[in-house]
Every structure is written in C-alpha cells, then in structure tokens.
Design goal:
The structure is a homodimer. By secondary structure, chain A is an alpha+beta fold. Chain A folds into two domains: 147 residues, Creatinase/prolidase N-terminal domain (Creatine Amidinohydrolase, Chain A, domain 1, 3-Layer(aba) Sandwich); 219 residues, Creatine Amidinohydrolase. In chain A, 34% of the residues lie in helices and 19% in strands. In chain A, a hairpin with a 2-residue loop joins strand 9 and strand 10. The longest helix of chain A is centred in the middle third of the chain and has 24 residues. The two termini of chain A are 42 Å apart. The mean pLDDT of chain A is 96. At the A-B interface, helix 5, helix 8 and strand 13 of A face helix 5, helix 8 and strand 13 of B.
C-alpha cells in the first residue's frame, strides 16, 4: 500500500493551497488517504451520537487523527487501524460527550487550524459545527485536490481492480448457470448478490444490482407494490448491471443474454453496442483523447447505425473506490485520459429491451485494457 | 396522507423564522413534506450529473419544486409525483447542463430567495453551489424545524408503522422456521432479507441486517476476509437486529434465540433485559417522562442486577422514515415524550453473547404500545 506516499503528496498540496488541515468524513476520500475501508451507508439514515464528526483530520505535519463515535464505529476503526502505522491517533466520542467540546478539543489537538478543506459530501451540519467552533475558520474543497490523485490508479490499486474484474466474470458465469425458466429479475439479482459472497467479495454489491427481464412482445408482470415479476421465458432479454466490492475497490459490469433465441433485430443492436464499445476501448490511449472525445467516438457508432436516440446516457465514468468518480465520459469533461485511469465503457440501446455491455477498462499507452472479459459474443441461454 | 397540512405548518414556520425558502436534498425530510419516497443510497457513492442539486425547493407560497438529474432519477420522481397534486413542478437536469445555470434558473423560478434553510445532511458541495449562485445568501438548518414535526406521528403514519411492525413479527417467525444446524449468521441474515420481500416490504432492509451466532465456549470461525462463519450448533446464542422498509416507514426489531438449550445464566440475563424493556415501556406516558429519564429507568434495572457495564449503548432512538431520528433516549436529550412519538426500546447485555430485545414502541396517554409483538419468552429452537 502506498498511503505514506499519498499522504505526502496531499500534505504538500495542502501547503501549496494554503490549508492548515483537511477534515474528511468517513468516505472514499478518507479511505484513499488512510487505508481505512469506509463503513457502508445504511439504506435509511442512521444517527449515532457524534457521527457528524466521524472522520479524520490530516495536517501538513500529521497523518490521520480519527474521531469516531463509540457506538457502531470505534471497534471497527480500531481494527482497521491495526496494521497502519501512519494513523496518528483515534479519539473516541462517547454517548454523553458534548459535540462542541469534542470539536474544540480535536481542533486544539491538530493546532487550531483556520483554513480547513473538507470532502465535498460532508454534511452541512458537520460544516456548521466546524464553522461555529473555529469562529473565523475558512473552508474549502478537499475532494477536488484528492480526485485527480484518485483518478490515476497505482500498481497496487490496479492489481486489486483486476482481481475484482476477474471475480466479476466468474460471478456472472456462475449466475448464468443458475438461470431457469420462470425465475424473475429479483430471483436472478438475489443470486448475483449471493455469488459475490461465494467468490470472496465484500457482502453487498457496489450499487444496487440491476437485472431486467424484457423483450419485444413480452408482457410485463408486476406485483401490487410495483415490483417486476415477469418470468424468464423463451424470447426474454435479460440485462445485467452489477458490481462487487473487493478489498475496498469496486467493479461495474454489464451483459445482455437472450433466452433460447435471438431475433435478427437484436443481433443488429447487439453488434452495434459491441462495436461502439470496441471503438472506445481502442481509443483509450494515454494522452491521445479526452473524456468528451471518447464519449463522441462511441456515440458516433450507434448514431451512424440509426439508434442514437436510444443511447440515452453518458458513455461511462471513472471508477475505483466509488462506483462513480471523476472523470466522467461526457460532453462537459475535457480531462485528457492518462495511463492508470479506469473507466466504465457502457454503451447501450434501449428500444424494446435494454441491450447493453459494460466493462471497467484501464487506460494504457496502447489503448484500453478491459479488467472484466466475459464473452462479448451473443449469449443465448 | 396529510402533506397539505404538513406543508402549511412548515411554510408558516418558515415565515416565522424569516426564511424565504427551503432547499431539501432527496432525503427523509423531503419525503416527509412531499410524499415522494426517498431513493435509497448505493453502498458506494454514485455520482450522476446534477445530483448535488437533486432535491426540491419549497417557499412560503409554493409547494415542492423538484430538481432532478435525468439519469437514474427523473423517471422515478415523475412516477412518484403522479398522485400528488401539491407538487408544483419537476425540473429535469440534463447531462449537458451547466450546474451554475441550473441553480441560477431555479432560484429565479422560486423568487430569488436570500435566506434559505437546508436539510442538515446536505452535501458541502451543494451548499457551496447555492452560496456561489445566491451571492449574499444566508443559510440555516431546515431539519431542526422539521424534526419536531416528524417526531410526532399522525394516524396515517402510525397505521403504516403498525403494519411494518406486524410484518416484521411475521418475517421473524418465518425465519425461525428456516434455521437449521450448520447455518451461519450470513445464511440467516440472507433469509431475513429474503423474507422481507416475500412479506411485501420494500426490497432491502432499513439498515444492514445484523445476525450473530455466539455463546459461552463457542469457538468462532471466520473466513480469511474476516467474515464470521460460525455454524449454528447446540448451545449457540443467535441474536437478531433487523428492520424493514414498508411504504416509506421502517421497523427495527430484536430478539435472541437459543439453540436446543439455555443455561441458567442466560435465563437470568434474558429476564433482566426483558424486565428492563417492560419497565421502560410502562413509563412511556405522554408528558410524564423525558428521553433521558426513560433511559435511566431501563438502565437501572440492569445496573441493579449487576450487569450495568454490559449495557453499553443508549436505550433507543426515535424512528419513522429513518431508522434513527430524533429524539434519542440518552443522557443528553431532555425531550418530554408525547403521544404519537415512536421509539425503539432496546436494552441489551453483551457479556459472553449478545442478549437483547428490541421493539418499536408508540407513546400513548397510558404508557407504551409496542408495534411489534413477537413473544418475549425464552425462545429455544
């Protein structure tokens, strides 16, 4: 792990930009700099005493000093910190502690910083607390300093992401073997999430697993609550969009499979989507293309084929610790692609069914290197 | 649904506090005021173009005007809004839109507010964007205005929460029937989440389902990744902590079950925990007790029994749209309990295993009314 080097780089940037400290909530930014794997969100908001201050301070002189609620967080962070000598300290917030005092004490401990940069998803209430306690503090955006570092993965990160991609391929293969007539999108998605565990990934996907069962002329069945229970049946088009978490990094993957047969029209759309992805991947050479240009290259294939209006989203997004992270492959982003960046390349045509493909692809000197490699041929099951 | 009334109340409070508008991100606060069920977080951060402005403005004169990213949000909000005439408008943010312009346009549309209150978990980047675009805008905390309203549930909300509690009981009963020797905590938790779907709840729990398999003298087995795979075996203590989402409201529930036998010591601890919960529930009379006092009542039972140091957390928390919401049953909260408030009552003793009970309990004139009612006797399976 290169956390010493990452911290040094960020501490230097901090000084150059005139910041006395970073305060990062428990987040992907903090994971990147500390090596402490972020604790996942709950589906509805939980609220532990002190969690508005759950995170860490980093100063130009000192590594992460964590501030952690006792309940549901302190044991976790202590365990994570055990093999990480660059973590300076862990301060526990007890249920009875007044948060103004907690904030005052920690600020004193890190030298009463006045110019503080914070992660850009920090809660307003956290920011207000820091404003109140610092009095005349000024606050800036730490994420925009960290994002360009996170965008370019080092060898250690690339090795993990390659392993995540490889396990994703295996998971998909295992799921395909389980699909039977009559299963619903929910049944299949549940199997996807289960296979993640069986393949040694973190429990829980990197984003809510997406499976759809559609197809021309296929009648949709839904429960009274609006959940699709359309059964897999001959002619169905089953489309996948899922990703794992593995050692703190994620994958994001897509394929479309066809039940028993595949119409000529679907073959045409499938060919277009694959050609679009192939042209984008080939163009992913270090220094040779911008995010916006890459989007245009892939889009042109589908537009020239006459289906431009059914490709309704950006070509893809940066990926690493988060499933979506900068840069983004769309018109507004003119980042020049560089070796070590990783993007999803995910063209689609959504006409009578979702025909899509998606892989995480690493930028190299010679073009893109896909980190997942399940067959891109017609998949008829 | 009483959204018209809720909006009126909040619009009046807005004027009294001198705010020109609220801006609420897609959140439980916005769900409460608009009736649009919040979209759940992904386990790792996603980033759609425009999602820092995903939410709604409400002014003293106008109901919610939603601002929604096209990708992954606009179809959802449009569908949710269909039967809600109090929603004034939905403005879609396209992938190519400059966000400063989007923010400027929406502010103009709502009368260029200068004093704006926002939800307290709004991202720093959202707040910065609004600061930048309003120039001399002042920002305050909308959540502290909304929280006391949310704390007291109306009849419609109580009916939903009662149904959520009843389905939770049924889910737990169904899970107990599936437990076999050799299953692990993961297997059981997976069954819990599956039963939620089968019982017509929203897919996915209100917080990560907690199941532990422990017990005095029971050897713990873990995978190389640190996941517990201790099998259910005679003498095991299986402890549950889970909740559903049902029609936008949540439950939170706990019981402890014993495999084949239960030692005298466990019976003693179980009795203490149940007595602690029973005394707290009896004391939940409108106007008669504060949050801090209730915590003390329950804690005293376990302290008097000699196990105070093993009851390591607050007695419980408010619950409704979020799994944890104010008020909180601990030393720092002196809210007086009022009819219609709902709290978890969840004493525990964590010595050689987690002996716990948890139910959502509604405050009434005559004491607490539990919304889940699975047996509190010794559960030996």
């Amino acid at each position: 792990m290169n956390h010493g080097k990452r911290l040094e780089t960020v501490q230097k940037a901090m000084q150059e930009k005139g910041y006395d400290a970073f305060f990062l909530a428990m987040s992907s930014d903090l994971q990147y700099l500390s090596g402490v794997l972020r604790q996942p969100h709950n589906p509805t908001d939980d609220d532990k005493h002190g969690d508005e201050l759950y995170g860490a301070f980093i100063t130009p002189q000192k590594g992460p000093i964590f501030l952690v609620p006792r309940m549901g967080a302190s044991e976790y962070v202590k365990a994570q910190a055990q093999d990480k000598p660059w973590i300076e300290d862990i301060v526990v917030i007890d249920d009875g502690d007044e948060l103004d005092k907690v904030a005052t004490d920690i600020l004193k401990k890190v030298g009463n910083p006045k110019r503080i940069a914070v992660n850009d998803r920090l809660w307003a209430r956290s920011l207000w607390r820091l404003h109140q306690v610092t009095g005349d503090g000024e606050f800036g955006n730490a994420s925009e300093i960290i994002a360009p570092l996170r965008a370019v993965k080092d060898q250690h990160e690339l090795a993990i992401m390659k392993e995540a991609g490889s396990r994703t391929d295996q998971i998909f293969g295992a799921v395909l073997k389980q699909i039977r007539l009559g299963m619903t999108a929910y049944d299949i998605a549940r199997e996807v999430d289960h296979q993640m565990i069986l393949h040694g990934c973190t429990a829980g996907p990197s984003f809510h697993t997406g499976v759809s069962v559609e197809g021309e002329g296929l009648r949709q069945h839904t429960t009274p609550e609006g959940r699709s229970v359309t059964p897999v049946q001959p002619g169905a088009v089953i489309s996948f969009d899922f990703g794992v978490i593995y050692e703190g990094y994620v994958s994001d993957f897509g394929r479309t499979v066809f039940c028993q047969s595949m119409s000529e029209q679907y073959k045409l759309l499938h060919d277009l989507v694959m050609e679009s992805q192939a042209q984008a991947i080939a163009a992913m050479k270090c220094g040779q293309v911008t995010a916006a240009e890459l989007n245009r290259i892939a889009r042109k294939v589908i537009e020239d084929g006459g289906y431009g209006k059914y490709f309704t989203h950006r070509l893809g997004h940066g990926i690493g610790i988060d499933v979506h992270e900068p840069p983004f492959l769309y018109e507004l982003d003119d980042t020049v692609l560089a070796t070590g960046m990783c993007f999803t390349i995910e063209p689609s045509i959504m006409e009578t069914a979702e025909i899509r493909v998606e892989d995480v692809v690493q930028v190299t000197e010679n073009g893109g290197l896909p980190l997942s490699n399940f067959s891109r041929d017609y998949l008829i099951i």
